[in-house]
Structure formats: C-alpha cells, structure tokens
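Q: Could you fold this chain for me?
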Amino acid sequence: MTERKNGVMAVMAKRPGAQAKTRLGGVLTEDQRRILAEGFLRDKTRQLGLMGRRTIVAVAPPDAPEAVRSLVGPEPALVAQRGDDLGQRLFSVLDLVFLDPSVDWVALVDADTPTLPLSFLEEAAIALDAGTPMVLGPAWDGGYYLIGLSRSTLREPFFHDMPWSTAQVFPTTLRRARERGLSPHVLRSWYDIDTPRELAWLRAELRQTSPFVRGYPAATAASLDIVWSGERMDRLSPNGASCESVDDEGNLRWLATEQSSTNLGPSVPASAQRSPSESGPEALPLLEHPPAEVSVFTPGNLIEAVRDLRGLSTTRVPRVCVLEFDGDLSDTLERSGVARPHAAWACFHTRMSVFQVDGEPVGMVSRSIGGPYAVLIAEQLVASGAEIILGLTSAGRVSAALRLPSLVVATGALRDEGTSFHYLPPARQVAGDGELAAALAAGLSTLDLPVARGLVWTTDAPYRETRERIAARAREGALAVEMQTASLFAFGEAVAKAKGSLVGVVAHVTNAIDAEAEPFFKGPPDIEERILFAMCRAALAFTRR
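A: Sure. Below is the predicted structure, expressed as structure tokens.
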C-alpha cells in the first residue's frame, strides 16, 4: 500500500471583485461576476477539505488574503500570491509552501472548476504520494486546472517564459517535462469557467447533477440561480463560434463566423431545441439530443492529446480501416506476422494493426464491440483520414430463411440501441450506403458462403433477445441481430459522409439465437480471414472508382 505523504493542496484564487471573471463581462455585471467567483471559491475550498489534506488558499493581489476569510472559513491557511504574471505567482506559492521542510509535494489547483470530480483530485494525491514527480490536469482550453510537483522536482522551467493564457500552456509544460526526463501523471481533462459558453456548460451540468453527490458545488449552484438572467450573449466563443442567444434553461444557439476554423454546422432554430422542461416529465433523456447541436468534445481534441502524451507523429491511417469486433481474427493475423502494429495510431482505448491487401495497407482495430465503443473509434478513424470504415461482426440469425453460416451485408438497421439517437432524429430504422453495400456483396460472392443484403437488428442488450422480440424483428424484415450497425450507420449519415467517408458492415451469421440445437458454426477454419480480405479488396476497389 502506498505510504501517505505530507502533501499540500493549494487553491489559486483572486479576490472576488472588479477583476473577477472579466471575460464574462459581456453577459454578467461586475456584481454578478463577484457573486459567481465567491461561489467558485467557497466550493473549491470545501472540495479540497473533503480530501483530508492540508489546504492553503493562495490569493491575489498580495494584500487580499484576509479579504476572503469569510468565504473559505477558519481552517485553510491564507497566503499571498506574488509576482507580475501567472508563472511568477504559481512559482511564489510553491516556494513559500516548500519552505516547510516536512512538505513532500504541493498541488496547485485553480478555483474555476466547480464541477471537477473529487476523484480527479484524489487521483492526483495518490500519484504524488507514490513518488510521481509531476501531475498535470489538462483543461479543455489548453491550459491546466492542476499542477502537482514533488519537492525534488526542478520547478523553474515550468513557470518562466510560458505562453500563459493560450492553448499552448499544457502542451508546452508537458514537452518541457519530457525534455527533462520526467514522465508526468496526466489526469483526465476538464473545463474551467472563463467564457459565456463555459458558463452555459456549467449551468447545463448542474441541472443534471444530483445535489446529494459528494462534493456537489452548492455555493456555485446558488450563485448561478442569482446571476442567471437569460440575456443575449452576442460575442465570440473560444472556438470562434458566435453565441447567438442563451435562454433561462441554458439552451444556446451558435452560429459559425468567418473567424471560425472549425466546421460547426448549421445553427439550431429555437423551435428545434428541447429542454427537459419543454419535453414533459415522461420524456426520455435519450430523445433530448438535437443532432444539429455542436459537441464541445471532439475526436480531434482526443487525438491531439494522445499524440502529445505519447509523442506520436501525425501519420494518417490507411484509406480503408476495419472494426473487427470479436478480436480473434486480429490476434491470429498478428501472431502469424500478417498484421503489424500501426505505430502512429492515436487512441487511448485501442491499438491498430496494419496488413496488406494487394499491396495496399489496411488498418484494423479489434474488440470495439457495441454501438458507443464502435462509434467512438469510428469518429477517431475519420478524423485520422480513413475514407471507408468497415465493420466485421459476428451475428445471430433472426430470419429462419437464412442459412447457417452465411453473410449479411447490412443495407439498414433497426435502431434498438442508444448511440444513433445522438446523431440522427428519432426514427425506427437507419439506412447504410447502398452503393458500398452492393460492392461489398459482389466482392464477398466469390466465397463459399451464402451472401444476403438486407436489414439487421442492432441491440444494446444481447441477453434480452426474447423469443417474442426475435419473432417481431423477423416479421419486420430483419435478417440477423448484432450490436453496432445502427450506431455506425447513423454516424456515417450524420458525420462521415460530410467528411467524404463511408461506413459499411458485414455480419458473419453463425448461430440461430433461439434454437439450442443449432451449433455455433463459422464455416471452414480460414473463412474469417477470407471474408476480411474479400471485403477489404472490394472496399479498396470502391475507393478507386
């Protein structure tokens, strides 16, 4: 068990007043900004107090510490931040705390992340207790919400000549650490509250969070209730989108501007936005996702984070990539040397292998089973340059007319899952690309397996495939049941096509799910490899049309 060391958690705070949250000046008055900043500081101090560690509140300007005593209570020590810029102020607090020879490590935490999970801070403390020289908590805007350093870690390089208040703070800090032989422990990213858009994120998150959660930011919630006025926010967001309006429910409308470097999609008419209060008490949260709303978390963000953390190049993935959901085929190809790792695949969750089909590389990612996981990887594949994404899935027979084993090239899917509703409006089915499906079926016709094209049933719950549901899906025209196609097709229609990419799915139907006497039989021993190469060969030919 890791020995608990003498660590200090220090909140970096400004005295609430005229200089508090100035970037919110376009939507909040000075008094409202003060109220909000007071709520942030109360909650962050309380949150750190839950950790059972020594807590310090470091306040700027230097003459301000006692001015915040009524906000933070009698327990935490108050110290002054000193210096002309943020780097100097951070450095001064570290130097001051480390004057105490008993202190083993210090973590500096910003006060502007009221909904930061307590578990993130506890993870930082555990890592520092274990002897990690540096811990970083990256913020979504490119800075960091936490930096923790052990006593022995050289501090000066991380605070002098830094591009403060830019998106380069975290990458620069990480690079400097690596140049000095350090391997920082990097926490999960989170957002701080600097802009009107982030204020709206905060509002939306608090509306969906139980007040009984440990560490719930009650003071922030109360402050928001006071300051939220529903006034218009006619200003630029951090990514160059213009916030057209925000209402009392926290619903925003964003318009792309000439300054925007990101394709934000069309603006969302107010009539198309549905808040919980507008949807009624019986409405399903799953159906409260207007597809035109722009995500604040993008695959590009994640890819860049992986590349920065692992020092990867920006090499594109192959034009054709396969999601091989079961994993056995990938294992076989890697063991035989047919497939080799893709060194530049930037993903926290999976690894990619590459094999050759008629002299052209094809990428393969295995074991991304289920709609959410499959689409998460598909998003990153498209962002990394994939032109065609193929899913190869095992499946159960639904239509009694289907021979076993056989292949089904999906042309559409019943949406009995959740992910597709985040990409497309509610509907019973989603269609795939018909031309790609035809090309795949033609390519697979050379194999000694029956090939059908048609509808599949996508489910999130394979152990809830009842006899009644199977019969109903068969009457609706489903040939087979699996767990990814509807999600992938919805992603393909909503996202991939706009970026010049297509999605296709081949189901290897190997069992009759409702008949115990039917064996799980895939066909000849090499059939899966032959299916893989046939579908990839067809997809490569399709890209050359």
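A (continued): The longest strand covers residues 406-416.
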